[in-house]
Amino acid sequence: MTNETHCPKCNSENIYSDGSLWVCPECGHEWSIFAEKSNQTEDVVDTAIRDANGNVLADGDSVTVIKELKIKGSSSVVKVGTKVKNIRLVDGGDGHDIACKIDGIGAINLKSEFVKKA
């Protein structure tokens, strides 16, 4: 059994044992008491933007709308099957991560969960 004295994630000295886990109260990281330091890996976060089917989207892709989308503040709708060309991926804090132009509507932001890669 190894006796770690620092959190492997934030390097804090304030760690404690909880059963078979070490716990860091500062960052919330938990790891096994029996794990070797060389076996520990960093948590990998997938930041890729994916469509409704799980395909990774990229700038310049074409997508198809899979759900009728009402536009706030307007009586217009984006109909199912509308093809959108040359999308641009943006970091939308509200979940709208695709910026594009749709014929007849204009510039609009879409959520990736409502499109599929064409």
List the helices and strands and how they pair.
Elements lengths: L15 E3 L2 E3 L6 E3 L30 E3 L3 E2 L6 E2 L4 E2 L3 E2 L6 E7 L3 E6 L3 E3 L1
Antiparallel strand pairs: 1-2, 2-3, 4-7, 4-11, 5-6, 8-9, 9-10
- Say how many strands there are: 11
Measured on Cα atoms, how large is the radius of gyration? Answer: 22 Å
Structural class: mainly beta
Query: How much β-strand is present in the residues?
Result: 25-35%
Q: How is the main sheet built? A: 3 strands, antiparallel
Order of helices and strands: EEEEEEEEEEE
Report the end-to-end length measured between terminal Cα atoms.
53 Å
Our count of helices gives: 0
Helix content: under 10%
Please provide a written account of the structure:
- The structure is a single chain.
- It is elongated and about 60 Å long.
- The protein has no helices and eleven strands.
- The protein is an all-beta fold and 118 residues long.
- The protein has strands at residues 16-18, 21-23, 30-32, 63-65, 69-70, 77-78, 83-84, 88-89, 96-102, 106-111, 115-117.
- Strands 1-2-3 form a three-stranded antiparallel sheet, with no helix packed on it.
Question: What characteristics describe this protein?
Answer:
mainly beta, 118 residues
